[in-house]
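Need tokens for this chain, all 222 residues.
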Amino acid sequence: MKHLLFIVLCVATSCSKKINLAADTAKVKNTKDTITYLPVRTLSITGDFDGDGKQDILYQFLADSTGHRVEKIPAFENETWEEIVDYYGRRGYYTALSVKRNPIDTLSFGFSQSLYCLINIGDLNNDKRDEIAVVPDRIDFSRHNYCYIYSLCNATWKELFSFNVHEDAFDYTGEAPPIFTNIPEVLEYRNHEWRFYDYLDMDYENVEQVGQMKPLKVTGCN
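Here are the structure tokens for all 222 residues:
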């Protein structure tokens, strides 16, 4: 199942009234005093993403269909996943990544509530810019996902590579979701290089390589 703890910083306290997720925005406002809200979970990393030799801060936030940032969301306790999907869909929520200065482009992932991970994987293609690995936490009915490798090319984020990921890689126990600096058995830094495992599409040269992680290689911006 999708883990709602990925979108909050702490466990929800009890609600005095169940939220009608099918209601329109006006109805939700009329009952705001009876709804418990929680801050949206955010992630950030540092790195030299534009190649100028200076450290940048890349941060993630949640936004609605108008582009306004969403600072808090209802504490879903008794709602079904279908109701939660409907709630996000009606508001057009999406997750975005931005560097704290202009004119660098914003990277967005539609219909998602947060990110499973945001990882600086360093300069893989020797262009003096750090690449990032991102897995969005999408609001859908599937546990199939992708890990995307992006680089900042001429102030615009470009996808250099992607591979299949099963979301059970992000399952955890406890109240607070961990901050992933790698994805165990999926994306790891081993023997001085990043290696990955695509659970649906992996070609091997011999039997001994079956099930093993492969070196992560990406092209440049051109």
